[in-house]
Automatic annotation (TrEMBL):
InterPro entries: AB_hydrolase_fold, Hydrolase_4. It comes from Tamaricihabitans halophyticus. This is Serine aminopeptidase S33 domain-containing protein. Signal peptide: none annotated. SUPFAM superfamilies: alpha/beta-Hydrolases. It holds the Pfam family Hydrolase_4.
Length: 374
């Protein structure tokens, strides 16, 4: 049986960070509850900051295995241009509280892909709240929020955090933020003179230039926000475009962290995905940049926050994943500060297990085994 959940949203406070007026007035978060036959006192919640997980591939298999499964959406469903990670934490808190009120005795969070860093941040703030405002100084204050802890975490084909992976993908060859065709050939991933394969010297230069670009954008964001503070019309935020967000060397050089993955990205060839509007994080606002994409300012660093948690944690990674690599999984696993944890490879698994029903079943079995009471 499938039920559409209407979960009251917490902390909206009239702030317009969601385009749709209907969504703002509704004040609801949406979840897709797949119920196990005979009922279950355990709920597994699959979440991502902005992806639509109402039809996530794990929901039906989990319910078939005897646990209730929820595909949760945040208020930023389908549009992360104004996303604040701190509000996503509030949204998970609202969902967990809602499920506790329904009588669920055990709740586990599955952070899939970009959900990995988010569930780590959530449980960290549920156990030991420390974040009092966004990096821009705005609400919410997570130390005063209702954030019920969950009983287990599962990191599924997850990276360590949006700002971390975004910086790993940021194209440092772009020297003019308004013109993606003005490029520095010395750090151009797509200039065949540089590779692939890429030399250690190039990669050192490339990674340094990625950090530099992220920090240049952050400095510009801070400067622009300071100017807006004096704006007589009360404008507090502005949108902008970031070109070149798919320049990860591992997309092209399969000798780097070799796995069973195919070359390229989830959106196709890397040179196209790098500039494709629908790929990662091209559209953002000033305040969202600081919360979501800034390597130095975002609160959502998965390893840092997992180190502040105490619940059993399972880390699953696909050996053919084009987006999240074994080193991402290892960084999450190593950060867990206790021994009630497991790192498990899904051999041949791609990022979304598309067309891999046997591996979907394998992952569902692993999740159910992990969340069952001892």
């Amino acid at each position: 049986m499938i039920e559409l959940l209407h979960i009251p949203m917490a902390g909206a406070a009239g702030q317009i960070d969601v385009y749709s007026g209907v969504s703002r007035m509704a004040g609801k978060l949406w979840g897709s509850l797949h119920r196990a036959e005979g009922g279950s006192k355990t709920a597994v919640v699959v979440v991502h900051p902005s992806s639509n997980f109402l039809g996530h591939y794990l929901l039906a298999p989990l319910a078939e295995r005897g646990v209730d499964a929820v595909g949760l959406t945040t208020r930023y469903l389908g549009n992360d241009s104004t996303l604040l990670m701190e509000n996503c934490v509030l949204d998970i808190g609202a969902a967990v509280a809602f499920l506790r009120e329904r009588g669920y005795e055990r709740i586990a969070l599955v952070g899939n892909s970009g959900g990995g860093g988010l569930v780590a941040l959530y449980q960290s703030q549920a156990e030991s709240p420390s974040v009092r405002h966004t990096p821009a100084g705005d609400p919410p204050d997570l130390t005063a929020a209702t954030l019920p802890p969950v009983d287990a975490l599962i990191e599924l084909m997850a990276h360590p955090g949006r700002a971390i992976v975004y910086t790993e993908w940021l194209d440092p060859a772009i020297v003019d933020e308004h013109d993606p065709w003005r490029r520095d050939p010395s750090v151009d991933l797509f200039d065949e003179r540089n590779g692939p394969p890429y030399t250690p010297e190039f990669l050192t230069r490339f990674r340094t230039a990625q950090l530099d670009r992220n920090r240049r954008i952050t400095a510009w964001v801070r400067e622009t926000l300071a100017g807006l503070a004096e704006n007589p019309a009360g404008v507090r935020d502005l949108p902008f475009v970031v070109h070149g967000t798919g320049a990860e060397p591992r997309f092209l050089d399969l000798t780097m962290e070799p796995t069973g993955r195919a070359p390229g990205t989830m959106w196709g060839p890397a040179a196209q995905a790098n500039l494709m509007p629908a790929s990662l994080g091209h559209h953002t606002s000033l305040r969202s940049w600081l919360s979501q994409w800034s390597i130095d300012e975002s609160h959502c660093a998965g390893p840092y926050h997992l180190a502040r948690t105490s619940v059993p944690t399972l880390v699953l990674y696909g050996t053919a994943d084009q987006a999240c690599f074994p080193s991402h999984a290892r960084s999450l696993f190593d950060a867990v500060p206790h021994e009630n944890k497991e790192l498990r490879a899904v051999e041949g698994g791609t990022h979304y297990l598309q067309g891999q029903p046997g591996l979907v079943a394998q992952v569902a079995d692993a999740v159910v085994d992990w969340v069952r009471p001892a």
